[in-house]
Amino acid sequence: MPGPVYSNGYAPTNLMVSAGSGYDKYGRYDWLMTPGQYQKHLALMRICKERTGHVPDLTPGYSAYRPFNIQVIYKNDLGIGAAIAGTSSHGGKWAGPVTGWRVVPTMAMDYHNWYLVFKNDRNAWYQAVRDAGLVPGQITVSAFGADEPWHVIDLDPWRAVTAGDGSVPFPTPGEVPTSTPAIMEEDMIYISGTTRPAALVTLGRARVLNSDEERQQAKVLATKVLEGNDRQYDLWMSFVTSSQEYTRESGPFIASSPNRGKAIFDVGVYRLLNAEESQNAGAFTNRVYSMNDRQYDLAQSIATTGIASPFPITIPEVKFDYDALAKHIVENLPETAEGPSVDAIAKAVRAEFAENPLT
């Protein structure tokens, strides 16, 4: 039975439940769902776990209910990649092929890593979605100019789902399936960029492919082939080289000084950022420092320059080892008859940071 029809993007959130929340470049987001929609989401998680041993993750951002003001932001930012504000299936009502282009109550969810869970088997993924009482495969090139297999629609979101309802496999009370890593241990992924060398990557390891024969064979071995632009390549490479979870509050930091370029620093990593990277880097870390030139040079001397993604995922805290830094400076000073000792330089470094702490 059709539920209430609210203006798109203005459904009452007090009648919804939260499946989680987080932060992205727009700020805080919430995965809000109607109670019936949430039960179908949990059912989908259970089905995926039973069939694959893993569960898909909701896409970061407003990938469940999407308020009208967020639809406006997404459309302005993503252009053709987002629905016109007030027409999104995430907003509470929608028209599409499955509805005969009639506007009906809907909600939607996006599961960004479905292809990792189902080894890119779209048919198996779609069947799991259907078995949970949801509708897959509605955002297509022929209908909307885009192919979005991750996009799942609930055509009856306001109907209550009970344990006695045979149409949806009701989850065990309190069951919350364990989240799946975005890259699983058995995955082997072929990646290439516009100007980047093709590589075969798996969790924690990456190997650049040096010949046409290697590239051809790697595609056969790979569980997924990703051929994208350089930005996508860099982000993938940075992700697969670490198995640790990344947070904006730890790990790499961004620093600049009056006469030095803005750069990203981490343990073993120093990389200057171009204009586009400088603009977007804040989405990956909120540790941004304004230093004087001396502080910047000292921080740079701790890091090492090398091939690294602009957004490395490793997260050990950056801690200054004054004695190691002093030794490094001494080893790189021009040879003189009498040079300052390591102890003297370490003392000077400590004094410099005490007088000019990082801000």
What does the secondary structure layout of this molecule look like, with pairings?
Blueprint: E1 17-24, E2 27-33, H1 35-52, H2 68-78, E3 93-94, E4 104-105, E5 107-110, H3 114-117, H4 122-131, H5 141-144, E6 151-154, E7 189-192, E8 199-202, E9 205-208, H6 212-221, E10 224-227, H7 230-240, E11 253-257, E12 260-266, E13 269-272, H8 275-280, E14 288-290, H9 293-302, H10 322-331, H11 342-355
Parallel strand pairs: 7-10, 11-14
Antiparallel strand pairs: 1-2, 3-4, 5-6, 7-8, 8-9, 11-12, 12-13
Helix pairs in contact: 10-11
Concise account of the structure shown:
By secondary structure, this protein is of the alpha+beta class. It is 30% helix and 17% strand. The radius of gyration is 25 Å and the shape is elongated.
Strand arrangement, major sheet: 9-8-7-10
Share of residues in helices:
25-40%
Tell me, what's the shape?
elongated
Q: Structural class, from secondary structure content?
A: alpha+beta
Tally of discrete structural domains: 3
How large is the count of helical segments? Answer: 11
**Radius of gyration, CA atoms, in whole angstroms:** 25 Å
H/E element order: EEHHEEEHHHEEEEHEHEEEHEHHH
Roughly how many Å apart are the termini?
A: 59 Å
Strand content: 15-25%
Biggest β-sheet description = 4 strands, mixed
Overall pLDDT metric: 75
Number of strands: 14
The low-confidence runs, each spanning 5 or more residues with pLDDT under 50, are 163-167, 169-186, 242-250, 304-318
Describe the structure.
The structure is a single chain. The chain is α+β, with helices and mostly antiparallel strands and 359 residues long. It has three domains: 13-154; 189-240, no CATH class; 253-355, no CATH class. Helix content is 30%, strand content 17%. It contains eleven helices and 14 strands. It has helices spanning 35-52, 68-78, 114-117, 122-131, 141-144, 212-221, 230-240, 275-280, 293-302, 322-331, 342-355, and strands spanning 17-24, 27-33, 93-94, 104-105, 107-110, 151-154, 189-192, 199-202, 205-208, 224-227, 253-257, 260-266, 269-272, 288-290. The strands form five sheets. It has a four-stranded mixed sheet with strand order 9-8-7-10, with helices on both faces. A four-stranded mixed sheet has the order 13-12-11-14, covered by helices on one side. Strand 7 (189-192) and strand 8 (199-202) form a beta hairpin. Helix 10 crosses helix 11 (342-355). The longest helix is centred in the N-terminal third of the chain and has 18 residues, at 35-52. It is elongated. Mean pLDDT is 75; it is low at 163-167, 169-186, 242-250 and 304-318.
